[in-house]
Amino acid sequence: MAHTCMKKPRIYLETSIISYLVALPSRDLVVAAHQQITHEWWSEQRNRYELFVSELVIQEIAMGDRDAANRRLSLVEAFTILMINDKAILLGEQLQKCAMLPEKANADALHISLAAYHRMDFLLTWNCRHIANGRTRHAIDKALKAQKMESPIIVTPEELTSEEG
Fold first, then answer.
1. Is residue 163, in this structure, part of any structural domain at all?
2. Residue 81 lies in a domain
3. Quick check: 58 and 75 in contact, CB under 8 A?
4. 4-60 tens-digit pLDDT
5. I want to staple 31 with a disulfide (CB 3.0 to 4.6 A). Which of 23, 26, 51, 153 is the partner?
6. Which domain holds residue 134?
């Protein structure tokens, strides 16, 4: 089989990925490990994928310290930005209910919705509380199937590595 016709898988980068790339090394050992894994994925794996962010990611990474926000924004300036529309918002609300996510997680549900609505192959995140979480993934998969939509594969950079090349 020739691989010349194969398109790169499409990845939606959730805000935590961009934040971990720019943040100062954490003193929390788990967060520091996640930052290191993210840097390794960024340097060794990202070119295997077509990368996307959304208007929501842009809004979130633009917040906070101006210098850090500028560094985050510069990382994604060449990426395609997925637009938020009424259908994605409605889907996000449905996903939030189905996954029983708290009200404060409405942006997390919208990230999942945007990745599904725009037919991303993967959603890459370190948000393991509301997004990359087995219970949430199961509920999201069921809810999207009911909508006759395919769920993106929700993963952390640690789960999306390849030993090839």
1. no
2. yes
3. no
4. 567 899 999 999 999 999 999 999 999 999 999 999 999 999 999 999 999 999 999
5. 26
6. 10-158
**CATH number of the domain encompassing residue 63:** 3.40.50.1010
Question: Quick check: 2 pLDDT over 60?
Answer: no
133-161 core/surface letters (b: 16 or more CB in 10 A; e: else)? beebbebbbebbeeeeeebbbbbbbeebe
Q: What are the DSSP E strand ranges found in the chain?
A: 10-13, 50-54, 80-82, 122-124, 153-155
Neighbours of 73 (CB within 10 A): 15
Q: What crossing angle do the helices spanning 106-117 and 134-146 adopt, rounded to 10°?
A: 50
pLDDT tens, position by position, 122-146: 999 999 988 988 888 889 999 999 9
Provide the number of structural domains found in the chain.
1
Instruction: Please check whether residue 50 lies inside any domain of the structure.
Output: yes
From the list 156, 138, 162, the residue with the least C-alpha distance to 14 is 156
Residue 59 lies in a domain: yes
